[in-house]
Design goal:
The complex is a heterodimer of chains A (145) and B (157). With 145 residues, chain A is mainly beta. Chain A is 12% helix and 57% strand. Chain A has a single domain, classed as Immunoglobulin-like (Sandwich). The two termini of chain A are 36 Å apart. The chains are: A mainly beta (145), B mainly beta (157).
Chain lengths: 145, 157
């Protein structure tokens, strides 16, 4: 009886848990210029941190990091650019995983109750002609399906 | 990608045919501010020597004469400016006013023709690079014996 009760409670909670996949940015990244002026990178600033929770309980969740891009740059800046990125994923029950992003990276997280994945992301953009003065914004998309 | 660490298999893994999770997508933002920086340093001062006719003191006449060497490092876009040169020191017997001071540059900024005006140039991303500055003082009345000194002000901003 006790076991049956537990299963019923669990199944009752499944629809809500199965239909959510939440990605929150806890810390946006900060870019810094390298000493030679050619690379703008979070390695010279701060990485972005994303927290992924409410994962699918019925099947593994695929987390994809993609689309590294320069979203804002000073006017007239159109130099050829090279993008790069890396990530480190931490989950309490699973340990650590890491990889490079460019052009994209994806990995699966098993269906585990209350699993939270913390994603630390680095982005960088390199321009052989350097970066004119002004504000720059880079973006990367994190998707969980 | 593989997880590295203790994988605990005691979690919930259920294969029931219930609705799957919808996709969630979020853009992660990185911001940065690039501020132009430029640094200059005088590597070696210039040395002037007197021409054969005694009317020109200049750094480009060979012998002991050498141009001044300035090292420049630039990040972003900067303007390098050399002000018109001025005569600073001269012997007691010399009366200033009849001379003409001129500049020319080579290396980082190529302005081989001497000019009494200043010299400006826009520079971009630049590792440590040499700028050679030549200075010439011309006086049709010649120069008294003694030590002469002149300078130009170089700014990078």
């Amino acid at each position: 009886m006790q076991l049956t009760g537990a299963v019923l409670v669990l199944l009752a909670g499944l629809p809500a848990a199965a239909c959510a996949c939440d990605v929150q940015i806890s810390t946006p990244g900060l870019l810094g210029l390298s000493g030679d002026g050619r690379t703008l990178s979070s390695a010279n600033g701060l990485p972005a941190i994303a927290v992924i929770s409410d994962l699918n309980l019925l099947a593994p969740t695929t987390i994809t990091i993609s689309g590294i891009r320069l979203d804002q740059a000073p006017g007239g800046f159109a130099a050829p650019l090279t993008y790069a990125g890396s990530y480190v994923a931490n989950a309490t029950l699973l340990g650590t995983s890491s990889g490079t992003i460019a052009p994209s990276a994806s990995f699966q997280v098993p269906a585990i109750l209350n699993l939270v994945v913390t994603l630390t992301i680095h982005n960088s953009v390199t321009s052989t002609s350097g970066f004119p003065q002004g504000p720059y914004t880079m973006k990367t998309s994190v998707t969980c399906t | 990608m593989r997880w590295r660490g203790p994988i605990i298999a005691g979690g919930l893994a259920i294969g029931l045919a219930l609705p799957t999770s919808p996709a969630a997508a979020v853009d992660v933002t990185f911001t940065g501010l690039v501020v132009d920086t430029c640094s200059v340093a005088l590597a070696t001062p210039g040395v002037m020597s007197l021409s054969g006719d005694g009317k020109v003191l200049a750094t480009d006449q060979g012998g002991l004469a050498v141009p001044a060497t300035v090292t420049v490092v630039s990040i972003g876009t900067n303007t390098l400016s050399l002000a018109p040169p001025t005569l600073d020191t001269y012997p007691a017997g010399y009366t200033p006013g009849g001379e003409t001071l001129e500049l020319s540059t080579s290396g980082l900024l190529s302005n081989p023709l001497f000019t009494t005006l200043g010299i400006d140039g826009i520079i971009g991303l630049l590792p440590l690079t040499n700028l050679l500055v030549n200075l010439r003082i011309t006086n049709p009345d010649g120069f008294e014996q003694g030590l002469y000194g002149a300078h130009t002000v170089l700014t990078c901003s």
